[in-house]
Amino acid sequence: MAEKTYLQAISDGLRQEMRRDPRVFVLGEDVGVYGGAFKVTHGFQEEFGPWRVLDTPLSETAIVAGATGAALMGLRPVAEMQFADFVSCAWDHLVTIAAKQRWRAGTPVPITLRLPSGGGFSGGPFHSQNPESSFAHIPGLKIVCPATPEDAKGLLASAIEDPNPVLFFEHKHLYRRIKGEVSDDRYTTPFGEARVHRAGDDLTVITWGAMVYTAGEAAEKLAADGVDVEVLDLRTLIPWDREAVLESVRRCSKVLVLHEDTRTGGFGAEIAATIAEEAFEYLDAPVRRIAAPDAPVPFSPPLEKAYIPQVDDVVAGLRELAAY
Amino acid sequence: MSTGTQVEVVMPQMGVSVSEGTVTKWLKQPGETVALDEPLLEISTDKVDTEVPSPGEGVVAQVLVQEGETVEVGTVLAVIAPAGAGSTEAEPAAEERVVADAPVPEPATQAAAAEVTASSSAGEGMPSTPTPAPVTSSPHVESAGNGRTFVSPVVARIAAEHGVDPNAVAGTGQGGRVTKKDILLYIESGASGVSPPVEAFAPEVPEQAPAAAPAPPVSATPPAPETPPVPAAAPAPAPTPPAPTPPAPVVAAAKPAPLPAAPHAPALAAGESEEAMTAMRRGVAEHMRRSLDTSAHVTSAIEVDMSRVVVAREDLKQEFQATHGVNPTYLAFVAKATVELLPRWPYVNAEIRGEKIVTRPFVHLGIAVALDEGKGLIVPVIRNAQDLNLLGLARSIADLAQRARTKKLLPDDVQGGTFTITNPGGFGTFHGTPVISQPQVGILGTYALVKRPWVVQDELGKDVIAIRPLMNITLTYDHRLVDGAYSGGFLKELRERLEDWEGSSG
Amino acid sequence: MAVREAEPVGSLQEVKDAGLDREDLFGIYRHMLVTRGIEERGHILYKQGKIPGSFYTGRGNEAGAVGVATAMAPNDVGTPLQRDMGVHITRGVEPWRVFAQYMGRADGPTKGRDGNVHLGDAKLGLHAMVSHLPAMLPVAVGMALAFRIREEKRVAVAWCGEGAAARGDAHEGMNLAGVRNLPVVFVIDNNQWAYSTPAYLGYACEHLADRAAAYGFDGVVVDGTDVLAVYREAKRAIEKAREGGGPTLIESVTLRTEGHAVHDDAFYVPKELFEEWALRDPIERYRTWLSDYAAMTDEEEDELTSGVKRLLHDAIQQAEASPLPDPETVADGVFATPDELETPHHK
After folding, report:
1. Under an 8 A CB cutoff, do A57 and C144 touch?
2. Is A171 a catalytic residue?
């Protein structure tokens, strides 16, 4: 056991997997000599050599397609997009080949794609996105969004083991800001199981990624009002823990779905629709969503602050819900 | 492949976006022989002109599409018969057509959703018509003042489960609505089901609809527009709610037609007191009005000599009580006779839907139950009553009545009735004109069993006076569907059935 | 590194030097006949409404496909495209399964989930193509990357059309292969027409093989109607890659003698071009060569052709007897389960 940052947990977990399984290898831009743009693979090439920590050309397509081909040949590639935003360059490969190969041709594609995502540091439109929902919509891809260091490590191990393409969204904002106790042993965290970040009975917030902490802070503020807010961290979106969500909704009857991604067609819409279909009779208020507005992520701090849901935004939403 | 059976020639799909093709030239005429794969005709499509090789060998038996005609992909163009068959009948080809049709899934049927969202309240249900107008199910609490009657889904469900009237609960939610917390608190505090004084009801303000489930007969909020009426005359059955799929029908913000009200409420005279109508009363009032406006009510009556039934009942009373703990009531006997006959008189057990008449071989029998202290009516339903014997019916009736009075009915218990029996005779009345429970078309009324002097035939066939237990039975029917002769026929058979009763099975 | 133009194979001795015996030569002929036969029969079935969707053939590319595939070792892998039915046949895919695929049957290689030439038997080292071309090219590069990482003496062959070579996938794949000297051979099937786009509107260099230099490896142009020439070049390139010599780009030139698909009558191709290339029909050419150089007798030829005819007849019967897929299964198997990774090629 040791206290690690979110980033350290990912790095240690990845290193542990590479030591455990020689088929695991890393490829991406600047991952080798440089140690990765965020230093996740710092020191890896020294340990594993240049063919297991492969510096690729600037070629997202070749990275993802290359990973696919290598996976079809029995390796377990962990490909990195330097920023999640760049995955759009490889969108075709993910959607056309990786997502569909098992279903139509019977050959699994066990690739893991690491995607540093999210904003909050004036990264601008192309270094701050959370592109999870468009991929969640494509059958055949798994979507993972850890919020804690402990989950990041366990979910990464599961992702690498999983015989399917897994998009692993690491929230950049959490890299160094969040610390937690993380076991040094190897462990896997299952997909499709939510984690109760904060237990409560009056309202529930369904969320993931960095927003888990925003919700947590907002919940503390409401506790001072005498309102007990539950925060449920989904941890994975495909698959997602419907049962936990529905159980929480049944118990609390008032629910807020919160995500940093933009509102229209964001994954929260799927959750809200499912709640309306399957827990209608348990609702004491409409299902509310708080998300970024339908616009690219702005650069200038006041704009970005108005864009990314802040603690105050969530507090206001929760108070409204509580009063309904 | 041709196996001696006929082979169809179809218009091929020449490209994914192509949906039709034109026959430009037949290379063979009917009667000519053709070999497998030999060019048979030429076609033209948006993409390409090409020949179609024959899929079979034999003789061109029929040409179904002429040169110059344009048809959809997959259309049969010709039929090839095995050589020597001579038949010109186009029989279905033995081959499998490979062109696949994507099966279109059945859309979720009807207003299962609409029925769910239609409100239903205690004893006053939604019609079980499959085409109610879907009621908007987005609950919206209007701004201050009017929100009081909005009941959210969870509150509706809890209210239904506990037989609580949400209006009886103090609301702390937006606009004064009852929240989940409020009703849970109320229930935990052991509050009774008595409605607290309600604010002066301003009739011109349309009520927000959502109501509790039909099971608890306690007053509930007003129902949606299509709620059926209840018989006006006597404790008559409350209308049956629809057959929804969820266990507790949930409610929506349907707006029922406001009850006609005095445009200006006059001041009370000395000695007069005023109370607000309970939700159930409002519902009953609305249903009565609506049923009378919908059906063409006609009542026919018949007097039945219940002598044999009386004897049978005496014989069975002890056994039924001792062994089964249930009393064989006259109502049970009449119910038995009724459900036996109804399948033979389908129009009395039917339903009018638009210009269609729906008949069925089953009888979901509604039995009217009066609630204590004039609180209202409820009509629990015995499903598939035609399958029950006398004992079964007696038990069902007793069970439902008891549960109705103790507010333990489930939503399924008050839905889907096809015919109703009401029994006001307990008070001694000998006749009545009940109101039909929509969307049914008939309601049977049974009245007091009265000993009367009656003309009967003695053993020599001569008229003599005897004392006979007589019961007047009425059938109120909807003359839109049922005519006098038909109803008369039914009543005649009913009388014969009862007057010839033997033992426990009749 | 200049682009080299390949020499035709002129004698039986050259063939022997290239590693083929008489039986192999006849095998090649048979594969070409089966390939063409499947596509001709399929063409007819399509027009008879027995094959849904679209129908593509590689008529004119039989030599290109069979020639390359013959040069592959059993544990080599490849990502052939729609003109490369000959690759599937040469590697051992049974004709009835091809028809089952065309007809969307449950016993087809994709169980009815994908159509026409989108088939691939991973056990035979072939991976099913997608419609986005040449998306499988960088995937093949990834396969070669796996071989390099594991230091296995295996080669990946990546096919691409001359039209598809315009897309970024081709560039990224070749670039990565060149940079990392990976054991992959790129085969560009240049049949001169990408649907209705002529080659001169698809690329500006003289030969697509010229691009190899840009990526740091050799390019060679070969007459795609000469199956033995194709074989010889493919063999050289594949063995070079196997021994760590890096990629080669082979541009195999022929003419697409039918439309882009059956629903296209190729009106935009000048008739003279068809006439010119008809004289170079790959199967005809090879038949002549076999008679002239390998002493193929009429009896031997008849036996071959009638054997192929029987094979295809039976194949169609078998495919037609295969059931259509069960609609209930449509959403099954979107995700793999861990046990599926226990197959030999995944371990």
Report:
1. no
2. no
The pair of three-digit structure tokens given for residue C265, joined into one six-digit string: 């009558």
Tokens standing for residue C271: 């008739």
The span from the CA of C57 to the CA of C45, in Å, is: 13
Q: What is the DSSP letter of B213?
A: -
Which residues in chain A are contacts of C215 at CB distance < 8 A? none
How would you label B310-324 residue by residue, b for 16+ Cβ within 10 Å and e otherwise?
bebbeebeeebeeee
How far is the CA of A246 from the CAs of A227, A242, A249, A281, B498, in angstroms? 20, 6, 5, 11, 55
Consecutive H or E run containing B426: none
pLDDT band, very low/low/confident/very high, at B42 (cuts 50, 70, 90):
very high
Would you call C104 an interface residue with chain B, using a CB distance cutoff of 8 Å?
Answer: yes
Candidates B1, B2, B13: best to mutate against C (most CBs of C within 10 A) is: B13
Q: How far is A298 from chain B (nearest CA, A)?
A: 34
What are the angstrom distances between the C-alpha of B122 and each of B213, B287, B368?
A: 6, 12, 13
Model ipTM value: 0.79
Per the listing, tokens 């698959």 go with: A239
pLDDT classification of B254: cutoffs 50, 70, 90: very low
Q: Rounded to two decimals, what is the model's pTM?
A: 0.64
CB B445 within 8 A of CB B476: yes
Alpha-carbon distance values, B230 to B275, B357, B437, C167 (Å)? 22, 22, 6, 75
Cβ atoms of C144 and A67 within 8 Å: the answer is no
Closest partner residue to B154 (CB to CB) among A281, A286, A323 is A281
Q: Which residues of A touch B152 (CB under 8 A)?
A: 283-285
With beta carbons under 8 A apart, name residues in chain B contacting C101. Answer: none
- Would you call C48 and B50 a contact, using CB atoms and an 8 Å cutoff? no
C38 touches C85 (CB < 8 A):
yes
pLDDT digits (tens, 9 = 90+) for A48-76: 999 999 999 889 999 999 999 999 999 99
The residue with tokens 């609409």 is B114
pLDDT over 50 (residue B245): no
What residues of chain B, 82 to 141, have a C-beta less than 8 Å from chain C?
A: 96-100, 103
Please tell me the distance from the alpha carbon of residue C180 to that of residue A57, in angstroms, as a whole number. 10
CB A134 within 8 A of CB A144: no
Partners of C138 on chain A (C-beta within 8 Å) are 61-62, 65-66, 69, 93
> If 0-12 CB within 10 Å is exposed, 13-18 middle and 19+ buried, where does residue B387 land?
exposed
Query: What is the residue whose two structure tokens read 């690219």?
Result: A296
Mark whether B412 is an active-site residue.
Answer: no
CB B117 within 8 Å of CB B91 = no
DSSP-H helix ranges across C48-61: none
CA distance A103 to chain C (A): 5
Backbone angles phi and psi of B150, in degrees to 5: -70, 130
Cα separation, B222 vs B224, in Å, equals: 7
**What is the pLDDT averaged over residues C141-147?**
98
Tally of residues, chain B = 506
Please state the length of chain C: 347
Both tokens of B200, joined, read 């002066």
- Flag whether residue C337 sits within 8 Å of chain A, measured between CB atoms: yes
Helix (H, G, I), strand (E, B) or coil at B216: coil
Give the residue from A98, A66, A113, A108 showing the smallest Cα distance to C138: A66
In chain C, alpha helices (H): 12-17, 22-47, 62-70, 85-91, 95-102, 136-150, 168-179, 211-215, 227-242, 271-278, 282-294, 298-321
Give the gap in angstroms from C-alpha C316 to the nearest C-alpha of chain B.
Answer: 10
Find the chain A residues whose C-beta atoms sit closer than 8 A to any C-beta of B: 202, 253, 280-286, 323-324
Using DSSP, state whether B408 is helix, strand or coil. coil
The shortest C-alpha distance from B477 to chain C (Å) reads 48
